[in-house]
Write a structure and sequence with these properties.
By secondary structure, the protein is of the alpha/beta class. It is 29% helix and 22% strand. It has a domain at 51-328: TIM Barrel, CATH 3.20.20.140. The protein contains twelve helices and 19 strands. The strands form four sheets. Strands 1, 2, 3, 4, 5, 16, 17, 18 and 19 form a nine-stranded mixed beta sheet that branches. It has a five-stranded parallel beta sheet with strand order 9-10-13-14-15.
């Protein structure tokens, strides 16, 4: 195994130091370190963070390898500073059995770029009718601990209660796509002034807020862990704030695009801006930013959703919802929060690792810690060019935008997956 000596690097914004990585761990820290045979990485001007962890990634394999594969998505993740991603279950076939989640897990191991932790479906085929094999997936080699029908809401309250009760036995978590389907039928964008002006069917904020309110009550009643995917409204923040004040075991995520973009983008009718939940108002964006800084919203999760060209370059009404996110998430979070490195580490590494039960991840670079870390150049700026992204798809809403920060290196268990901003393999 290659040893690396990272010199003159700032750990979480502290004074520069050296980091010696050997045998998969941070072996030593201090000024003026030497190590015979180690590959030297100049960390001058760079900040070392614990490797990022994404709780919400769509890798599309099996079934839609034309849009993304576990390997291409893993490479995009590593280039974005990630060392672990949680792969959503809406594949084809759906990841609702031990066999499918083990397939995804093994593909991630073979790629070797990030740890790919499968998320199991809550219901068979994401149909919302009967529970999937939660226990079998939990006991599989993949050791699934998060279950979600993301893309579909578990709308039946009795089924949701049963899922919460079931996963409690092994301290699992149900991650809910909060959308009351009867309120969003035919919806194309956020319901508001702009949807009215454009003549597009609106997706009301209350459709999200009502499900969150219901589910925090169910989680409180059962005493189980609930996670809310891609929170997008100020009203949802209010529900979460009250639930946390009561001690409900609920966590929540926000996506980079909901922290930056608004429903004003829909006036272009460019389907790259079509996403579920939809882009909301400037007031919602402001509330989400405050909630993230305060911890009412616990983490940033990308909801990386690659799509083939034909699924995006078409009329708005027929386009599939979703945006790329893995290679730009840290830049957008840095833009939103500023260089508050400890807070960024908490929202993008430590807390998501805890929620997912990924014990090797989310550790600050320190002696004895697993060497899962990323080096970022906070002074750099880059123009996002879709053709230069590692993802197999190109549906980024940030095309030709200038974003702050550049991932210089990423290490997974002491092995470099990215060096000088380029994937090692």
């Amino acid at each position: 195994m290659t040893a690396y000596l990272i010199t003159n690097v700032s750990v979480l914004g502290a004074a520069p130091t050296d980091l010696l990585i050997r045998d998969g761990v941070v072996a030593e820290t201090g000024v003026g370190l030497t190590a015979a045979g180690a590959v030297v990485v100049d960390g001058t001007g760079l900040v070392a963070l614990p490797g990022l962890v994404d709780l919400h990634t769509h890798l599309r394999e099996p079934g839609r390898e034309d849009a993304e594969t576990v390997e291409t998505g893993s490479r995009a993740a590593a280039l974005g500073g990630y060392t672990a991603v949680c792969a959503m279950a809406n594949t084809s076939p759906v990841a609702d059995t031990a066999g499918v989640v083990e397939q995804v897990w093994r593909l991630g191991r073979e790629a070797g770029l990030v740890d790919v932790q499968p998320i199991g479906a809550v219901t068979v085929g994401l149909a919302g009718e009967r529970l999937a094999e939660l226990g079998a997936m939990a006991d599989s080699a993949a050791r699934v601990r998060i279950f979600s029908d993301d893309g579909h809401c578990v709308a039946d309250p009795r089924l949701m209660r049963r899922a919460l009760e079931y996963v409690k036995a092994f301290d699992g978590v149900v991650a809910q796509h909060a959308e009351e389907p009867r309120l969003t039928e035919g919806a194309q964008m956020h319901e508001g002034e702009i949807s009215t002006r454009l003549g597009l069917t609106g997706w009301p904020a209350v459709a999200e807020e009502a499900i969150i309110a219901r589910d925090v009550l169910l989680a409180e009643h059962v005493g189980s862990r609930l996670h809310i995917c891609h929170v997008s409204t100020a009203g949802s923040v209010g529900v979460l704030r009250q639930a946390k004040a009561r001690g409900v075991r609920v966590t929540a995520e926000v996506t980079p695009h909901h922290l930056l973009l608004t429903d004003e983008k829909a006036v272009t009718y460019d389907p790259v801006y079509k996403v579920n939940p939809p882009l909301r108002t400037a007031a919602d964006v402001a509330a989400l930013r405050t909630a993230l800084a305060e911890g009412v919203v616990d983490i940033v999760a990308t909801d990386h959703a690659p799509h083939a060209v034909e699924d995006k370059e078409c009329e708005w009404a027929y386009a599939r919802p979703g945006m790329l996110g893995l290679e730009t998430a840290l830049s957008i979070t840095l833009d939103v929060l500023g260089p508050r490195w400890d807070l960024i580490a908490e929202r993008m590494s430590r807390t998501p690792a805890r929620i997912a039960g990924l014990t090797e991840h989310g550790h600050d670079p320190a002696p004895g810690a697993p060497a899962n870390l990323t080096l970022v150049d906070p002074a750099a700026q880059r123009v996002i060019e879709p053709t230069e992204l590692a993802s197999r798809s190109s549906n980024t809403p940030y095309a030709r935008m200038t974003l702050p920060g550049r991932i210089v290196a990423t290490f997974l268990r002491g092995e470099a997956t990215v060096l000088d901003g380029k994937a090692v393999k």
